[in-house]
Amino acid sequence: MIPINNFLVLSSILFSLGIYGVLARRNAVLILMSVELMLQAVSINFIAFAVYLSPQAFTGLIFAVFVITIAAAEVGLALAIILRLYRNKSTANVDEADMMKW
Amino acid sequence: MGAQEAYLIPALPAAAFVVLLLFGKYLPRGGDFIAIAAIAGAFVLFFPVLADFLDKANGTDFVSAEKSWKWVQFDNFEIRLGFFVDQITIVMLAVVSFVALLVQVYSVAYMRGDPKYGWYFTCMSLFAASMLTLVLADNLLLLYAAWEGVGFCSFLLIGFWWERRSAAEAAKKAFITTRIGDVGFLIGILLLWREAGTFDITEIFDFAERGGFRDADIGGLGLSGNAYLTIAVLFLFAGAVGKSGQFPLHVWLPDAMEGPTPVSALIHAATMVVAGVYMVARMFPLFVLADDIALDVVAALGLITVLMSATMGLVETDIKRVIAYSTLNSLGLMFVALGSGSVTAAMLYLFVHGFFKALLFLASGSVIHATEKQDIRELGGLAAKMPVTAAVFGIGTLAMIGVIPLSGFWAKDEVLHAVDQHRSVVLYMLALISVFVTALYMTRLFVRTFLFEARDRVAWGHSHDAEPLMTLPLVLLAVLTAVGGFVVFGFVGEALGFPGGFGKFVFFEDPEPFDFAWDVAIFSTALAVGGIVTGWYFWSEKAEPARRAGEALQPAYETLRNRYYIDDAYQWVIDRVVLTLGTIVAWFDRNIVNDTAVDGSAGLGLFAGFELKFLETGKLPNYALAIVAGVIGLAVLLLVLRL
Amino acid sequence: MTYEEVIFYVIAVPTVVGAIGVVTARNVVHSALFLILSLLSVAGIFILLSAEFLAIVQVLIYGGAVTILVLFAMMLTRVRDLPAALDGPQRPFAALAAGAFMAVSIFSMVSTDWPGETDKINVISIEQIGNDLFTTWAVPFEVASLVLMVALLGAIVLARGEEGE
User: How is domain C3-81+124-160 classified at the CATH fold level?
Assistant: First the structure.
């Protein structure tokens, strides 16, 4: 007998921590890890809604599957980009990659 | 093919214009044959339209033919693009298509070798299309569009030799002066539309006859329905004043002679300048319904123009300008006729004037072509070298003076008769005086150009009659000038298929058939002959009497030479008032609009952009923070909206 | 508090602790280890939500593949050797923004009146998921695999570098 709000609040906390990580960290790998936390929060939300509120269609559950799939793809690509950045600029800090500014 | 298909008449020159504009450069001879074929086609198409129209007339009652398409629609208000054939249209179509054809044929020889030969025919085609649309239009909006179209062509063709500064100036002057009238015309159209709710001419007539013009309140000014209508038609008349060169907007027409002579013949004699007369004749039922003052103004301005132009013609030395003054003179007479309530007289005069004035211009064109002089002080004695030109010019001169039995006589007497019948004796006397003055200056023009001793022997020596291509139109026009007046007789009209003669044909609703008045004819003929004799005496041989008269009446002579100082007055107004105002506006534009508003706002943008660019740090975390802030803001907004 | 809730808290607390560790640790490797803790706890949450299939996928993909990838990235970019601080200068603002977001998010989650029963977990069997995934969601599923493949190819191309480098 766990109320749905428990899961929703947990996901909110996780997501907010992810936001903090993304904003506060400078290292691209750490930012990526924070993004993963945010994705976890989203997955929890999806599954909670699916099993509590729409057990017939459980679209949220299916969506969580896709979230994990896309997250895997994203991690692969993002790490490749980070490697690329490191090779060109000898840094993995996002605030040092500012060639596009005015 | 019948009157319903009359829209094909302007369509042909319009198509020729498009073809010449796009492909004229690649066509042999600048594509003149296309322009001429188109206008010839239009002239040929006129006959089935005429025949069909007369067929439908079944005796006495003319049925006008109409055809229209939807042009623009807003909600429940629509403007139709329509053509309309009635008696006035038929007369105009005849004059316009025939004279345009002859003038274009003449132009082939006259303009030969000109570097802008093809462009000339392009403009001529556009002019023909606009003019034919103007006479066929069934609503005021289309009429106005065509009206501006002919004005624009006039501008192009007066300024055809724009390399010459005077030509460019004259084109500008003509355009701006007529524009002043056109604004009035547009205001008139909109005033009519405001009450009647339609641009369709017939519907406006119905509306007016039903007494549809009610008391109106415009800007706190209470107007009775009739006063409203009067003001509206006076504004319409302003358009006619500009287009037809009536006082006080007559100043552009003499200067318009800077254009090629065939252009003067077509546009500034036979067709465009009579558009004003046509328009007033077309809208005549409204002038009749309005207060008497409307027609009084028409007659008064017409008469002023007649007298001013005739007297100015006495001292002008440029052959084309003298004819231009005679055109003003004729146009004034047409308005006098309209102002006296006789559409018949006006249309008759318009009809024959188209022929004899085009003849005079084309003949003067031959003279200019042959001698390369157009100052009559340098001409003279050309009759010996150019007999054909002299003969046709003489016929034109006599027709203009109004000598029996040439066409001008019948038309002018019809006008005088109308004045005699409907106007005071003072106006009648003034009109008769104008006949005398007209005879005087036309005689002077002919005598000084063609008779007696040549003053420039070199020019005289190499002058000769023009080639057949130019002479043929002259002869055709001369024949029509000689016999064209006979349409006034009932039996001639009927023989040609017009039931009841010309008068009945033109103005069937209130039949006013030709009415020959012996007293008028005798007076006018006496004055005309008197004018010719006096003119002959004054300007024969060395023109001694004229010189002495000029010296004796020095102030009058100077006034006339300076065209009553009207041009100077206008110039003064332009210099002092318009330019002063212009300077103020220019200062305002330069300093307030340009420097402050335009440059200022641009500078503000530049400054803001320069300052704001430092917000763009190029650092990813900053952007991410902004995104999150935005998301939070949106979420809060949604929450607030939901609660 | 029911025993189910007790279990929930037992799993939720390590999740949050792991997450806090990820974003605050001063050592990148510790950060990665905290991430593993958090991810595995989330798998536990999934089981609690009776989504066993997703829990298994979570352990396999996140706990295994993704973490390994992240560690490899750290090694290759030599994050530990870099002298610079791990946190950027806008950390206070980040905390503020995250706090604000958390407040707004929790408030809206709690204050919303969700339709349907909100305290009963419905068990959805793996069989049902499989059925749906390959019937209703067959096309998105295939597209997802395509995306995965393209992303991996792209990653290879990006990471391999240009000729002669």
Answer: Four Helix Bundle (Hemerythrin (Met), subunit A) (1.20.120)
